[in-house]
Amino acid sequence: MSGCLDNITCPGWTDAVAERRNLIASIIAGSLFHIGWWFLIDAAATSTFDPAYHSPGVFSTVAVFMINAVSNAQVRGESYTTGCLGQTGARVWLIIGFLMAFGSLIAACWILFGAYVVTEAENPWPGVAIFLQNALIFFSAFVFKFGRSEDAGW
């Protein structure tokens, strides 16, 4: 899956982009992660909401670290054959990370619609910010995991 964009060719700039693929993917993923947390910080600074609504963002952040702790080569079984569970352990760790990320995004939707849309809250910005935070963190995990090439360096 990490090489799904390898066969796209555009004359002129593809060589320069291919050489810096890891750098570009890291910058985009880090920017998405930063903007997501910035939305929640803005919502927390400008309005009051239940402190439990921070939980999906925290779990989403932990999920990003879990997803990126396992390389694609470890999941394929190319570089991680020893250890506690080997390739199976890497796959289980990765699926738990993805489940946490999906669960956090679903929880953010639930908070948005349950607490702000259905009740027709006066200020829906905190619910929107919680959802945007989790959506951007979720997408940053995918960009970093599948946008990088393990063959090239930084």
Description:
By secondary structure, this protein is mostly helical. The protein contains six helices and no strands. The protein has helices spanning 14-19, 21-46, 55-68, 72-76, 86-117, 125-147. Helix 2 packs antiparallel against helix 6 and helix 3 (55-68) runs parallel beside helix 6 (125-147). The radius of gyration is 18 Å and the shape is globular. The model has no long low-confidence stretch (mean pLDDT 86).
Low-confidence stretches: none
Give the radius of gyration. 18 Å
Distance between the termini: 20 Å
Helix content: 55-70%
The ordered H/E elements are HHHHHH
User: What class do helices, strands and sheet pairing give?
Assistant: mainly alpha
- What value does the average pLDDT take? 86
- Give the overall silhouette: globular
Instruction: Kindly estimate the percentage of residues that lie in beta strands according to DSSP.
Output: under 5%
Biggest sheet features: none
Q: How many H/I helical runs?
A: 6
Number of strands: 0
Keywords: Membrane, Transmembrane, Transmembrane helix
Family: Belongs to the UPF0220 family.
Membrane topology: Multi-pass membrane protein
Protein name: Transmembrane protein 50B
Main attributes?
154 residues; mainly alpha; 0% strand; globular
